[in-house]
Amino acid sequence: MTELRASAFAFIGLSATVLAAIGAIGLRIVDPAPVLHNSFGFGDVALVGFAVMGLTFSSVGALLVLRRSNNAVGWLMVIVGISHAGSILTAAATYSAAALGTAGGDRLAGVTGWLTLILVMIGSFFFVLPFIYPTGRAHTRLWDRLVSVMIPFFALTIIVYAIQPGPLQVFETIENPFAVGPDLRPVLGVSLSQVVAPGSVLLAPLAILAITSRYRSSGQVERQQLKWFLFASSLSIMGMSTAASGSAMTGGQVGEAGLAIFGFAGALIPVAIGIAILRYRLYEIDRIISRTIGWAVVTGLLVVVFAVVVVGLQAVLAGFTQGQTLAVAASTLTAFALFQPIRRRVQSVVDRRFDRARYDAQRTVDAFAEHLRNEVDLTTLRAALVATADDAVRPVSTTVWLRTAPGGR
């Protein structure tokens, strides 16, 4: 019965996410109604980004539910994926309904806008993931109590916003059609972003502390799983921060750019979770981190070299015709010539820090190759080969098979 329920949940959740994402994008193509002012900057690019993130969350989550039905991470990811895809569908429907300019259209916009608010709030359960990943539960009783408080708190917050009188917290130009009770806007604010931003600031340190605490008390496999999650989360956060900073400097809409980058980059998080929990190429994370840092450092150094050479040569060649062109050409050739030496040196230094196992294994193999050049005794070579294999890859067992030469020699 449990397996049947897990299969049904995975199939229904993934199907609903796919239909919602396709429906949202299709509706915007068929009816590109004006985008209503909203708290987060839900524009067309951001809607596509959230569609991608919703699809990846539901796809990987459904796979985890089928393969690890007792792990709550997969179930939560499907719920988050549905909420992301569903929110962009209801947002697109709200734009189309409001553009009708009729009483019926306004009523429909109120309902779809209200659904958008609910789905966006359900998506906030994403913040529970760092506290239960990768096992599906908190690693200590104290953190378990915190999670048991967070879940009902999020649920109560959704209910409060669902019945809050006045404008909807996502679409401030649409009145809540299901308002009940007192007006709490003086406490909650008039925009959902006014609560999400400080809430994220409070939850982020707690999430980092929970992951750090779990990392210290976990074994080798779980540490690798946490590395995958942190790596993908860091890329997502850096992408969103870069987009927001760029938008601020250019005077663009921060919300639209930030949401779009968060959607596309956030799709890396479920992929990393799937790799880590399903153990597919789990130990590749050290090499991926090492290569990422290495290429980033090499790129930065070459940019500095290019800029310094350009500035220096332009000053030297200022009196010559086409001096700027020659400076750029010479700088390009200089950067090209330095690329391989810099890359090898930087990658060696980075590997020593971030991919130590591979670095040590390579040193062991190099030492064996050096020893092999001067050794002719077969017994000694066989013992050295077994020792090198044990040090480099640490196999469960090692056997050396030597082919007998014709004639028994």
Structure description:
With 409 residues, the protein is mostly helical. It folds into two domains: 2-280, no CATH class; 289-354, no CATH class. 76% of the residues lie in helices and 0% in strands. It is built from 15 helices and no strands. It has helices spanning 2-30, 44-67, 72-99, 103-122, 129-132, 141-163, 185-188, 193-217, 220-250, 254-266, 268-278, 285-316, 323-354, 356-372, 378-393.
For this entry, give a set of tags.
mainly alpha; about 0% strand; 2 domains; about 400 residues
What's the number of structural domains? Answer: 2
Helices and strands, in order, run as HHHHHHHHHHHHHHH
Q: Which shape, going by the Cα principal axes?
A: globular
Mean pLDDT: 77
Strand content: under 5%
Assign a percent range to the helix content: over 70%
Compute the CA-based radius of gyration.
Answer: 28 Å
SSE class: mainly alpha
Give a count of the beta strands, DSSP E runs of length 2 or more: 0
